Amino acid sequence: MSAIPACPQCTLENTYPDGANYVCADCGYEWPQAAAADAADDEAAIKDANGNVLADGDAVVLIKDLKVKGSSITLKMGTKVKSIRLVGGDHEVDCKMDGGSFMLKACYLKKV
């Protein structure tokens, strides 16, 4: 797969770099390469339920009661979790609480 992004205007992949810009050969649209890099960074960022970008060491609060699979433990809404760690995969946040160590989805968290 090519590292050159598809055209943001016509969404076709027939694009090429030209100096500091990318150019679409089909529609003629030009856009700066720096803008494409910023868009890639935004997609890679892990965001909470409100759209705030999360980072390692942040404190978050649960926005919903979560049942722990294979256990009778329920993580209660409003529980504050300190110093989270971001990891790849479906469950993006690794954290430690009173009940143990858990992997959580960022969509159930709110940054404090």
Structure description:
It is built from one helix and eleven strands. The protein is mainly beta and 112 residues long. A three-stranded antiparallel sheet has the order 1-2-3. Strands 7-4-11 form a three-stranded antiparallel sheet, with no helix packed on it. β9 and β10 form a beta hairpin. The longest helix has 12 residues, at 33-44. It starts with 14 loop residues before the first strand and ends with a strand. The model has no long low-confidence stretch (mean pLDDT 87).
Oligomer classification: single chain
Distance between the termini: 39 Å
What's the average pLDDT? Answer: 87
What is the spatial order of strands in the main beta sheet? 1-2-3
What's the CATH C level of the largest domain? Mainly Beta
Structural class: mainly beta
CATH topology of the largest domain: SH3 type barrels
Features:
single chain; 112 residues; mainly beta; N-terminal domain of TfIIb; SH3 type barrels; 2 domains; three-stranded antiparallel beta sheet; 1 helix; elongated
Give the helix/strand layout:
Blueprint: E1 15-18, E2 21-24, E3 30-32, H1 33-44, E4 60-62, E5 66-67, E6 74-75, E7 80-81, E8 85-86, E9 93-97, E10 100-104, E11 109-111
Antiparallel strand pairs: 1-2, 2-3, 4-7, 4-11, 5-6, 8-9, 9-10
Briefly characterize the structure.
The chain has 112 residues and is mainly β.
